Amino acid sequence: VQERSAIIGDNYRWPHIIPYVLEDSLEMNAKGLILKAFEQYRLKTCIDFKPWEGEKNYISVFKGSGCWSSVGNRQHGLQQLSIGAGCDRIGTIQHEFLHALGFWHEQSRSDRDDYVSIVWDRIQAGKDHNFAKYNDSTSDFLNVPYDYTSVMHYSQNAFKNGTEPTIVTNIPDFMDVIGQRMDFSDYDLQKLNRLYNCTSSLSFMDTCSFELANVCGMIQSSDDNSDWQHLSQVPAGPTTDHTNMGECEDSGYFMHFNTSAGAEGSTALLESRVLYPKRGFQCLEFYLYNSGHESDRLYVWVREYTAAHPNGTLRLIQEIKGSPANYWQLHHVSLNITSKSRVVFQGVKGGGLSNGGLSIDDINLSETQCPHHVWHIRNFTHLLNTSPAGQEGRIYSPPFYSSKGYAFQVSLYVNGTADSPFNLAIYLHLISGANDDHLQWPCAWQQGTMILLDQHPDIRQRMSNQRSITTDTQKLDSSSKYFWGRPAEVGATATFPNGTTFMRGPGSGTSAFLTHQRLRRRDFIKEDGIYILLTMEDISHLLSTQPSASPTVVTNTSNVCPENPCENNGVCIVVDRAPVCRCPAGDNWWYMGEKCERKGSAQENTVIAVSSSIAVFVGMLIVTVTTAVCLKKKYRKEKERGERLALEK
């Protein structure tokens, strides 16, 4: 099979629902992140994943040497995909699963020389094959332009043997763009959706930035005494919408409920188009600008339609209140609708004096889980311009609590650490909290996820940047204390802005969260603020993820393959009650043999193929010559016999 941007042939396509196994060899943090990567596929494509239940072909995800995958569905039953040490980033996992779905690296395209230059003498010895280019007869990039922003593109420093880049973009501005591992690019999604004929995504439901006069099919209810208005500015604020922030002429609209006039209790209802949920849980996200009075209220309802109530019944989900502010504020509301419904925004005028009202913009609704907490950092440009690198430039989030009761905090190095400046660095800390006497210590298998939000108005086109950290009971700090032990025992004294002291445990994270160049290329900073979305969830249920045994194939369990006989990271399974080694394979190499003891490569295969061809040719030549000699002898005998018969007449 030849390499190409997308592998050609329907036999290499997976079904739209792909069976998988998470092998127990995987690190716990990687297991949780793989499930998060699946959610991104569901949100942005029609590709879904399900635990393996005996299907013929499936993906076995394990901790091998590095991050790698075969390309396309190889139709070999168990197909390995490695998420090794250091591969636990959601963009890296998306990258490897795109390989499995049928995609090669972006810089392998036949037209790549128009966009990048490969500097061959800077590449590590033996790594040249990673930069191979394939011609039009073997390359299908699905009529999508070359994509510097692809999650499948190598970085400028890939496999370098020194300090100079191995890939140079022909347009210099893209040098710091290639190699991103944040999320799918728009063109990544376009190619994947074309290859698998996706016309919609699975968990996306609706988005609206109110740029069009039809306001995304939303309707004004007749059960009120006022209306929401479609505006581009309000004298008391907002002066711009959130989508474009006033940067685009003749655009930039939002919906506004005026509370500066009318009687107390005046109300306006804005209802979404009819929605048909599939999963039973949803996240509603929107931006709210409150230029009214603190007594003004926004209520989120759902109108649910049933056979008993064909006109729908309203169910209150959340009341949103707060003091007026001169900026847009991000809100998340968790829904649990299971039947045909509408989402309803109800504005209610309070009793206080108002000069403005309530405005909403950039609504997104998806069948995903909402983040648990939001950290909004305002005046961020000032922080970037004035904060030094290192600890003096570190800021801390407010304290938050996980659903299990653990208190935690996030630290952000605005201009990077002393060793890694010009980056955002981010770390997760456990801190002393009200529940510590009743919690398990060391803290076990809580996965904290920190997402720097790309504030693009359409959730499907966002390229947010995230990192996850999972607490491990066996991890030790430099003093041989449990890293995730009780903060009162392993932490240091710290002080909140109000003067209250507490104990802060050590931080775990990354000094290379996001470069400042990438920070400025997307909508991470908007209205001079950033949002960091935070979630901490218990993933202890992922400790054992092996599937139940099927009649024909049993994966590794405690009483099967007790001593793995497979070499070179081979996986031992049982077929018809006998142990069998499933050998790892990469793009141009594979292991083979009863115990995966022998390594093969494309180069060796070529030599074998050529040798075999020569042998076959020689063999055929011998057969041909032998046949000719035999036929000649037979012809002579027949001729002599004929001559003798003629003489005897």
TrEMBL record:
One of its GO terms (cellular component) is membrane. SMART domains: MAM, MATH, ZnMc. Binds 1 zinc ion per subunit. Residues 5-199 form the Peptidase M12A domain. GO terms for molecular function: metalloendopeptidase activity; zinc ion binding. It comes from Indicator maculatus. Zn(2+) binds at residues 95, 99, 105. GO terms for biological process: proteolysis. Keywords: Disulfide bond, EGF-like domain, Glycoprotein, Hydrolase, Membrane, Metal-binding, Metalloprotease, Protease, Signal, Transmembrane, Transmembrane helix, Zinc, Zymogen. It is found in: Membrane. SUPFAM superfamilies: Concanavalin A-like lectins/glucanases (SSF49899), EGF/Laminin (SSF57196), Metalloproteases ('zincins'), catalytic domain (SSF55486), TRAF domain-like (SSF49599). Its EC number is 3.4.24.-. This is Metalloendopeptidase. It is an enzyme of class 3 (hydrolase). It is a single-pass type I membrane protein. Residues 206-372 form the MAM domain.
